[in-house]
Each structure stands twice: as C-alpha cells, then as structure tokens.
Specification:
Elements lengths: L1 H10 L7 H7 L5 E5 L13 H16 L6 E2 L22 H17 L4 E6 L5 H14 L7 E6 L23 H10 L45 H24 L10
Parallel strand pairs: 1-2, 1-3, 3-4
The structure holds zinc ion.
Length: about 260
C-alpha cells in the first residue's frame, strides 16, 4: 500500500520524470508550481513554515488526485518577503524580481506545450506579485486563446471554521493559531512555547483601502493572530480541509474544456 502511494506521488512530480514522459503530458495536464517562502514566523515557528506547510498540502493533494491528473513542479521556496526583511533569517526576492521569476516559469511551461498553468501559493506576500505575473504573461501571449494562467492560495480553498467549532481565529494570520497548529501536526519538535504569546489583531486600518506596510507596522514579535490557541488536532483538520479544497480546484482545471478564458466549459 505504502509503495503504491509513493509511486503515485512520484508519477506526479516533474523532477521524477524523464523528458519524453513530461512531453507526453502536455498540453492538457495542469502543471502546478507550488510557491512559498522562507521568512520569519515569530519567536516560536521556523522560518521555513510556509514552505513546510505548502509541501504537506501538496503531498496530501497528490494522494487525493487520480494519478497523472496534474504535474507538480518542485516547490519554490524563494518568495517575496521584503516586508519581513528586518527579521533575521528572512530570504526574499524583491517584488519585481519575483514577478519576473514567475513570468519566466510560465514561459518555460508554455515553451514545453503546457496550457494550464497554476501557481499554488502558501505565502501572503506572494499574492499581489503573483497575480501581477499571471496578468503580465497573459498580455505577452495575447494572441493565444488556449491558455489558462492561474494564481491561487491554498487557504482560500476551504472554510475550516464551518466544520470545527473550536477555532478561535476565522482567518489565516501569520505564525498564528492556524499555522502553529499545522506545524504542531507535522513537526511538533520545531514549535517553541506559545502559552505566553500575546494575541496580535489582524487588519490594516483604513480599510477598505490597501495600506502599504512592513511587518513592524503590525507586530513587534513577528506573529499576527492568536498562536496560544494552537493544537495539533486543529492542524490536522486544517490540512484535511485545505487538501480536499485544493484537490477539488485542480479537478476543475483538469476538466476545463478550453472554451475560453472566462468560461469553465
Ligand atoms: Zn506563514
């Protein structure tokens, strides 16, 4: 059983396949680029938190999807984390550099014949440059009518509070109840003490405007949310919800008949 699950994971990873097999999967197989970050996650979580969490979501999604229904590129750990740079350990591509990197990955995939390209994101700071990148690539290939270029974040694919009543937060924060719970579920030995950490409210002030910010504007310790309420069972629930949500979303992409960018037929 375990061997067949490992084999299934391997069949879905671009890095495990020879080029003729990859070539045969294009053009209709969705190619998924998981994108995350290495950045500070408060006093109690490792800097690789976003990358570790997204890798676990991807692992679970692969077990849920039919074999061969999507091809996964290796996780890109370098994200846009300039807003965290004054905290040690943060590694960041500046926003323009990050946009260019994602544009180039789409060029590569299109060159190899792929038409359904999905960035699966696990870090809030990638969101704005990621959307900009898919927008820019669409403009550069404007003569094409067969491309589906998507940028999406895993925690937008489930509402975990609807199926579990003890979650204190109702949003994804940063090094918060939710992220701390998920690291507790997979790497508990890496989580520092949380009982004394103060709750840090989310929100930007001046909404609905979007405020330019650095992390110091919002938190001095580095977390946003309520990590003291974390528990590994909550983390397991979050992973389950997100893996199911993302798998369903990728299924929609695989079923897309290519009728046009604004149609799901
Ligand atoms: Zn995070």
């Amino acid at each position: 059983m375990r061997d067949s699950l490992l084999l299934k994971e391997r069949l879905m990873n671009l890095t495990d396949l020879p080029w003729p097999r990859i070539s045969s999967l294009a053009p209709d197989t969705p190619i998924v680029f998981p994108v995350a970050a290495i950045e500070q996650h408060g006093h109690h979580l490792p800097v690789a938190t976003d990358s570790m969490l997204l890798a676990e979501v991807v692992r679970r999604v692969q077990l849920l999807l039919p074999s061969g229904s999507a091809l996964f590129a290796p996780l890109q750990w370098l994200g846009n984390s300039d807003h965290h740079l004054h905290f040690s350990g943060t590694l960041s591509a500046d926003p323009r550099g990050y946009i260019d990197l994602l544009n180039r990955l789409m060029d590569n995939a299109i060159q190899h014949g792929f038409r359904r390209i999905v960035f699966l994101n696990g870090h809030g700071g990638n969101d704005i440059p990621g959307r900009q990148a898919v927008f820019e690539t669409r403009q550069r290939y404007r003569q094409r009518d067969d491309l589906l270029l998507l940028f999406t974040t895993y925690w937008d694919h489930a509402k975990p509070g609807e199926t579990r009543g003890d979650l204190v937060q109702n949003y994804m924060g940063h090094a918060c109840e939710w992220e701390t719970s998920m690291i507790q579920a997979i790497r508990p030995e890496l989580v520092g003490p949380v009982a004394e950490l103060p709750d840090v409210p989310a929100g930007f002030a001046f909404e609905p405007a979007y405020r330019g910010w650095i992390t110091d504007d919002r938190t001095t310790l580095g977390h946003i949310g309520a990590p003291r309420h974390a528990a590994p069972e909550k983390g397991e629930h979050l992973f389950e919800c997100y893996a199911r949500g993302v798998a369903a979303f990728l299924g929609r992409i695989a079923e897309w008949k290519g009728a046009g960018a604004f149609s799901e037929d």
